[in-house]
Give the backbone structure.
Amino acid sequence: MTRFWMIRHALVAENARAVLYGTMDVELCPHTLVAQAPSYQALARALPHPAVWVVTPLSRTVRTAEAILKAGGAAPPFLVEPFLVEPDLIEQDLGAWQGLAHAALPALLAAPAHPFWPLAGGERPPGGESMEDVVLRVGAAMERLARAHAGQDVVIVSHGGSIRAAVAHALGISADNALHLSVQNLSLTRLEHSSEGWRVVCVNAMQAA
């Protein structure tokens, strides 16, 4: 059994939340980093040791992973071995729409927005990707990680869109259905993989501080 522990990165800065930031490399909210210290400590207690740690190329996942390890008094191998960077677990690329104010998006959509996401699962922004594309990309990455780290615990600090996509891949559901899942900042989603296939243990679990 290969166990995946997927964490959505911490809350981003207020100015970033005002726009569609997608794969933009935005900063974390400095005030929340301090205020949520107990949440980092709770996550550090809940996560397995040792484990393989995976982040995406965006700094918000790296900084979140570092904060969790620091809160848990990280010891080797975490301070010796670097994080594995997996580009295919990055957030949805919104292409030409990245950086737009949320209010500007509806006029550009070809289909009604999803109730819980800026756009429908099949809508592909100019120069970007649809959530359906993300499910395929993330699904392939999860299969690759499951093969590379069979029988291990793998902690992944990633993004809301890619975590929903991983669950969609595990359950075999559509992108639109996966977008109904709530995945809050610093929440924990657990997946398992074995010869029998994928199993979802929990989604959007918040650790008691």
